[in-house]
Design a protein that fits this description.
GO terms for molecular function: histone deacetylase activity, NAD-dependent; metal ion binding; NAD+ binding. The protein is an alpha/beta fold. Helix content is 37%, strand content 12%. It has a single domain, classed as Rossmann fold (3-Layer(aba) Sandwich). It contains 13 helices and 8 strands. Helix 9 links the parallel strand 2 and strand 3.
């Protein structure tokens, strides 16, 4: 059970969500040009030829829900602050950094977990029900595609809503249950932050850390981590092979909201090239895959994807 202080803090965090979402397009989405009617027509034509569409999505589809990303020009975490995500080896080997990570994540989770899908997430879920999507791989760990109803989905970098023990592999606890465990271990500790980072944590000072006690696995007392791929860690090879297998059965690729700077997602564009699959990219600004694209539209995903008329696409 949470203490009264913790309940008050949780309510304040949730109350700030509406404000964060309402200003998201200004704060976290880079400047962009609205798509032309020609852009919409070209993307509809591209999709009309696809019967087994493979989708790759990145942080650019979630910025419109109020979640910042790392790399967007001028508005991403790297551009706005000197803060950097924690490397996996730091998390594993440095007890002070492990403690700091969980203090920040504990404070950030009420806000992060309350974010909701936007039009783009719901559009992809609708495309599934209309039989357009063969498979979808996302770099995002925010669960928004799942919340929107997507099921033909691989979460390439994991999901923040799940947790796992680094030492014994225990996965019998949800992220919310872990939140409650941390609250019990820290009945009077709390902190505040006006920031929210892409992976659910916030910025805290050493002074704010105080006497915070980090969580331990209830089964082996080992180290707990969100079930996500940290920077400096590797994506599960079996998952990569499965996704490649899905890609080989697809007939076209749509990249949405990703710069493809991370090799873990860019590798699928390289495979698509080898398979000679047509590739379309919708993203603000350049991406690593632009030269491979048969169609590139530089705009906000939410300004074009919900306007594609899947039901009216001509039969092949």
């Amino acid at each position: 059970m949470m203490t009264r202080i913790q309940r008050v803090f949780f309510k304040r965090c949730c109350a700030s969500i509406a404000t964060k979402v309402s200003r998201a397009s200004e704060e976290y989405v880079p400047p962009y040009e609205k798509p032309s009617t020609n852009d919409i027509a070209k993307l509809e034509e591209f999709l009309s030829r696809s019967k087994r569409l493979f989708i790759i999505t990145g942080a650019g589809i979630s910025t419109e829900s109020g979640i910042p990303d790392y790399r967007s020009e001028g508005v991403g975490l790297y551009a706005r602050t000197t803060n950097r995500p924690m490397m996996y080896q730091e998390f594993l080997t440095n007890p002070k950094r492990y403690r700091m990570y969980w203090a920040r994540n504990y404070i950030g989770w009420p806000t992060f977990s309350a974010f909701q899908p936007n039009e783009t997430h719901r559009t992809f879920a609708k495309w599934e029900t209309q039989g357009k999507v063969f498979w979808h791989v996302t770099q995002n760990v925010d669960s928004l595609l799942t919340k929107a109803g997507c099921e033909l989905l691989s979460e390439l970098h994991g999901c923040s809503a799940r947790v796992a023990c680094v030492d014994c592999g225990y996965k019998g606890m949800t992220r919310q249950e872990l939140q409650e465990l941390i609250a019990r271990e820290n009945p009077v500790w709390t902190a505040q932050s006006n920031t929210i980072n892409p992976d659910a944590d916030v910025y805290l000072t050493e002074e704010q850390l105080g006497d915070f006690r980090p969580p331990r696995c209830p089964q082996c007392s080992g180290r707990i981590k969100p079930d996500v791929t940290f920077f400096g860690d590797n994506v599960d090879r079996r998952l990569v092979d499965f996704i490649k297998g899905q890609l080989t059965q697809s007939d076209s690729v749509l990249v949405a909201g990703s710069s493809l700077e991370v090799m873990s997602s860019y590798r699928f564009v390289l495979v698509a090239q080898q398979l000679q699959l047509p590739i379309a990219i919708v993203n603000i600004g350049r991406t690593r895959g632009d030269e491979a694209a048969h169609l590139k539209i530089s705009t906000r995903c939410g300004s074009i994807l919900p306007h594609i008329r899947i039901n009216e696409l001509p039969k092949q």
